[in-house]
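Subject: Protein record for review, amino acid sequence with backbone structure tokens
Category: Structural biology, sequence-to-fold work with a learned token vocabulary.
Format: Residues in single-letter code; tokens as whole numbers, each standing for a residue.
Body of memo: The sequence and its backbone structure tokens, given next.
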Amino acid sequence: MRRQILTSTTAIVLLLGAGNAYAGMNEAKAFLDKEIGPLSTLSRADQEKEMQWFIDAAKPFAGMEIKVVSETIATHSYESQVLAPAFSAITGIKVTHDVIQEGDVVEKIQTQMQTGQNLYDGWVNDSDLIGTHWRYQQVRNLSDWMAGEGKDVTDPMLDVDDFIGKSFTTAPDGKLYQLPDQQFANLYWFRYDWFNDEKNKADFKAKYGYDLGVPVNWSAYEDIAAFFTGREIDGKKVFGHMDYGKKDPSLGWRFTDAWLSMAGNGDKGIPNGKPVDEWGIKVDENSRPVGSCVARGGDTNGPASVYAIQKYLDWLKAYAPPEAQGMTFSESGPVPSQGTIAQQIFWYTAFTADMAKPGLPVVNEDGTPKWRVAPSPHGVYWKDGMKLGYQDAGSWTLMKSTPTDRAKAAWLYAQFVTSKTVDVKKSHVGLTFIRDSTIHDKSFTERAPKLGGLIEFYRSPARVQWTPTGTNVPDYPKLAQLWWQNIGDASSGAKSPQEAMDSLCADQEKVLSRLEKSGVQGDIGPKMAEEHDLDYWNKDAVSKGNLAPQLKVENEKDKPITVNYDELVKSWQK
């Protein structure tokens, strides 16, 4: 992939003339010919119309040099290496698009927020920070920007309603604060070929009394994990589960990326539970955080959360390769592609392209995958109407500390790389869909058989249950770092799941209390609630038609349920 991108970049730079003082439609047509071709939802005439708009809108900024930044994934490498040079050649605005680690992006945007120093003119910043941006008011809200100060540089063909992640980047005030650039979900991954093997099916049915299939709940996932672990397939002992457990910052993403919601933590609500979200943070009727611990009506250390951590630990120890306990996120990622893993409950679709490479043990000779992705199973505390998993949404963010002219130039670039002209081609490179029109493009209908159910999922009604961190989290950078440290103690055995979650919610409440005392977030900042016991807060929630915090379920191993994958896909199409 990387070699192909570099080759394509070189071709475009030579074609467009790197360093050429001229910019305009000739350069745009060359870009459309060589890079976009038929891969766009727009006709060629409309592509040229959109490019002409960019050329005209960019004239006041010709010769300006701007810097933007994003995390390291294939989508952003393509933007940096291919689309940025093309944009520069077409508009005359020179863009340096840095691609760095996700943690570094968060650290740098924190620095710009704290110092006011303009480190970058545009940021592809996770929508997980929507609650932070809304409360601190240090980023331009794009609704007002597009209607006012940025109107002259807002593409009339942008079509904000076409962005599937628009609800993720909209704050409680109804304003859009960020524009999605790439999205990917964490789904259930499984070996479709093994699940359809007649002997495996017969043996599973004989042992468990129900059909081997996509698990709907955690009870079924657990049975399937036990069934495959130690089983010999193609001459190899295989495992029924894959995960990672090293005490490392990446362990935090493993849990803030909606693991608790999959178990049934928090309240009903899409894109996030209200008043209690999937982090267990509760807000009042004015969206002010009032607590994280059960003692204040939160759910971070409630029965559903503790159950979520306990299941994670049990499965990692019993059903994953022994070395998984010492792995980080990046180390564990390639393991399923090596052909000894039957299923993974928590698998990022950003890995789809790498998992579908010809020659891998998990890819057939004709290029079709031996695996599929499907909706994640849910825990015993989960109820209909709750979110079911996480979807990353890296989104363009304009800081108020960025001078207006530089913000306008960066906004032009942000719209260029998310435009309808460009988006289908970009999505074929990164498989990180942001536009509904792109998902339904015929080119993805043709490619779908080689992507293991990814296209079917994104076209399905189930998609809306996968969402990023919501607006209840008032300071994502400060709070997110607490997760890996506390859950790492449970993973290492230093603390029990209950002790770890008690510690986590207490640490979160220290941050909330400091924010309340500082008053820095004004009348939408935290306002801590009085403390009571679980029974009190559960009765209070139920009396108001809510769920969280739920009481402990007596039998956390409910009746296992599976569905046939092919029947599931057919039901979506109906």
